[in-house]
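Supplementary Note 3. Input sequence used for the single-chain structure prediction.
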Amino acid sequence: LPSLSVSAVGVCVAMAVSSGSTGLQAAVVLGDGPVSDADLAIVRDFAGPGVTVHAGDARGTIASTTLS
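The predicted structure, written as C-alpha coordinates, is reproduced below.
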Protein backbone atom coordinates (compact mmCIF):
# COMPACT_ATOMS: atom_id res chain seq x y z
CA LEU A 1 0.00 0.00 0.00
CA PRO A 2 1.53 3.32 -1.02
CA SER A 3 0.26 5.12 2.08
CA LEU A 4 1.51 2.51 4.58
CA SER A 5 5.00 3.11 5.90
CA VAL A 6 6.35 0.77 8.57
CA SER A 7 10.00 0.05 9.32
CA ALA A 8 11.37 -3.47 9.61
CA VAL A 9 11.72 -2.94 13.37
CA GLY A 10 8.08 -1.85 13.52
CA VAL A 11 6.94 -4.95 11.64
CA CYS A 12 9.02 -7.26 13.86
CA VAL A 13 7.68 -5.71 17.05
CA ALA A 14 4.10 -5.84 15.74
CA MET A 15 4.54 -9.54 14.92
CA ALA A 16 6.01 -10.20 18.37
CA VAL A 17 3.11 -8.43 20.09
CA SER A 18 0.53 -10.28 17.99
CA SER A 19 2.21 -13.58 18.93
CA GLY A 20 1.95 -12.81 22.64
CA SER A 21 5.54 -11.80 23.31
CA THR A 22 6.05 -9.39 26.18
CA GLY A 23 9.55 -8.12 25.42
CA LEU A 24 12.91 -8.66 23.79
CA GLN A 25 16.51 -8.81 24.88
CA ALA A 26 18.24 -7.31 21.83
CA ALA A 27 17.67 -6.21 18.24
CA VAL A 28 19.82 -6.16 15.11
CA VAL A 29 19.09 -3.74 12.28
CA LEU A 30 20.91 -4.37 9.00
CA GLY A 31 20.97 -1.79 6.22
CA ASP A 32 22.27 1.62 5.33
CA GLY A 33 22.93 4.14 8.08
CA PRO A 34 22.32 4.21 11.80
CA VAL A 35 19.23 2.97 13.63
CA SER A 36 16.57 5.68 13.48
CA ASP A 37 15.26 7.43 16.57
CA ALA A 38 11.80 6.15 15.66
CA ASP A 39 13.01 2.53 15.68
CA LEU A 40 14.76 3.04 19.03
CA ALA A 41 11.48 4.45 20.39
CA ILE A 42 9.58 1.38 19.16
CA VAL A 43 12.04 -0.93 20.91
CA ARG A 44 11.87 1.18 24.07
CA ASP A 45 8.05 1.26 24.03
CA PHE A 46 7.87 -2.51 23.67
CA ALA A 47 10.74 -3.73 25.83
CA GLY A 48 11.70 -0.78 28.02
CA PRO A 49 14.88 1.26 28.14
CA GLY A 50 18.33 -0.28 27.95
CA VAL A 51 17.73 -2.89 25.24
CA THR A 52 20.84 -3.49 23.12
CA VAL A 53 20.36 -2.52 19.47
CA HIS A 54 23.09 -3.43 16.98
CA ALA A 55 23.33 -1.69 13.59
CA GLY A 56 25.15 -3.30 10.70
CA ASP A 57 25.54 -3.30 6.97
CA ALA A 58 23.71 -5.55 4.51
CA ARG A 59 26.47 -8.18 4.82
CA GLY A 60 25.88 -8.46 8.56
CA THR A 61 28.98 -6.63 9.78
CA ILE A 62 28.03 -4.80 12.98
CA ALA A 63 29.06 -1.14 12.79
CA SER A 64 27.62 0.21 16.05
CA THR A 65 25.74 -0.74 19.18
CA THR A 66 23.44 1.48 21.20
CA LEU A 67 20.84 1.13 23.93
CA SER A 68 17.17 1.91 23.47
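The longest helix spans residues 8-18. The mean pLDDT is 94.
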